[in-house]
């Protein structure tokens, strides 16, 4: 498959490749140069996929009554006591 670069440095992805790779308008592509000047195109995750990945973050919140900041302060105080800083 061949494509031609336009005067604005744009290319058209052949329809066959777009269908096989599920490329849709707005798809982001990362371009790099490989060995022997090969051009490498890597599809970046779509925003919807990034949102799905982010949706699971933060679920491991501490239980009620647990204060991680106070725990950290206590740990630091114990560490300081161990080296006679307090």
Specify the CATH architecture of the domain at 1-56. Ribbon
Q: Looking at CATH, which topology of the domain at 1-56 would you report?
A: Pemi-like Protein 1, Chain: D
Looking at the structure, what is the overall shape?
A: elongated
Describe the sheet with the most strands. Answer: 2 strands, antiparallel
Please give a handful of descriptors for the protein shown.
86 residues, alpha+beta, single chain, two-stranded antiparallel ribbon, 3 helices, Pemi-like Protein 1, Chain: D
What can you see in these coordinates?
By secondary structure, the protein is of the alpha+beta class. The protein has a domain at 1-56: Pemi-like Protein 1, Chain: D, CATH 2.10.260. Helix content is 35%, strand content 12%. It contains 3 helices and 2 strands; from the N terminus they run αββαα. A two-stranded antiparallel sheet has the order 1-2. A hairpin with a 5-residue loop joins strand 1 and strand 2. The chain is elongated, with a radius of gyration of 26 Å. The mean pLDDT is 88.
Compile the SSE list and pairings.
Blueprint: H1 15-20, E1 29-33, E2 39-43, H2 47-55, H3 68-82
Antiparallel strand pairs: 1-2
Offer a concise description of the structure:
The chain is of the alpha+beta class and 86 residues long. It is built from 3 helices and 2 strands.
């Amino acid at each position: 498959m061949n494509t031609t670069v336009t005067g604005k440095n744009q290319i058209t992805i052949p329809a066959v490749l777009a269908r096989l790779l599920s490329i849709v308008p707005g798809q982001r592509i990362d371009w790099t140069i490989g060995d022997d000047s090969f051009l490498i195109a890597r599809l970046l995750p779509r925003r919807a996929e990034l949102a799905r990945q982010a949706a699971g973050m933060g679920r491991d919140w501490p239980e009620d009554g647990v204060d991680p900041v106070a725990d950290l302060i206590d740990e630091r105080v114990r560490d300081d006591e161990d080296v006679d800083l307090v």
